[in-house]
Design brief:
The protein is α+β, with helices and mostly antiparallel strands and 165 residues long. It has four helices and ten strands. The longest helix is centred in the middle third of the chain and has 14 residues. Strands 1, 2, 3, 4, 5 and 10 form a six-stranded antiparallel sheet that branches.
Length: 165
């Protein structure tokens, strides 16, 4: 039996034409036979996390229905990043990037593998994830963390600039 899971993906870019890159990545994901796009948030301009001597990011969150396993979906996300010129530097955690695709949630599963932690460990600490996620799933309950609105109450949306819907 091949069950479908709802997966929430965080998207970000701050190199090149970020909006075009994010839209292309969404299209690549939606074209996969085991993935169906359910919703995409607005795009937001945000300040970088970590070193501030880099361009602002464009961020969004998307919801997909998928028959892929969490590990297979992660492998696909990493490949799409690579195709868009993402080079992962293990010494530079929060540097600039052409494309960043994070698996935020995979159904109600809690995953703790060496290469994948779901729910994403920084999810509730990032306004650029929480606000777009609330836009497309306002009643979402997070595994181990409860109502997503509890995360929102701890964040400041002051640095978020909505670019488009």
């Amino acid at each position: 039996m091949n069950l479908s899971h709802l997966a929430y993906i965080g998207l970000g870019s701050n190199q090149g034409d970020s909006l075009t890159i994010l839209k292309a990545a969404l299209k690549q994901l939606a074209e996969h036979s085991a993935i169906e796009l359910q919703a995409v948030s607005s795009f937001y301009q945000t300040k970088p996390v970590g070193p501030q001597d880099q361009p602002d990011y464009v961020n969004a969150v998307a919801c997909f229905s998928t028959r892929l396993s969490a590990q297979a979906l992660l492998a696909m996300l990493l490949e799409i990043e690579r195709l868009h010129g993402r080079v992962r530097d293990p010494h530079l955690r929060w540097g600039p990037r052409t494309l960043d695709l994070d698996l935020l949630l995979y159904g109600n599963e809690v995953i703790q593998d060496s290469n994948l932690i779901v729910p994403h460990p920084e999810l509730c600490k990032r306004a650029f994830v929480v606000y777009p996620l609330l836009e497309i799933a306002p009643d979402l309950i997070l595994p181990k963390q409860g109502n997503l609105k509890n995360c929102q109450a701890q964040l400041n949306a002051g640095d978020l600039i909505k670019l488009s819907s």
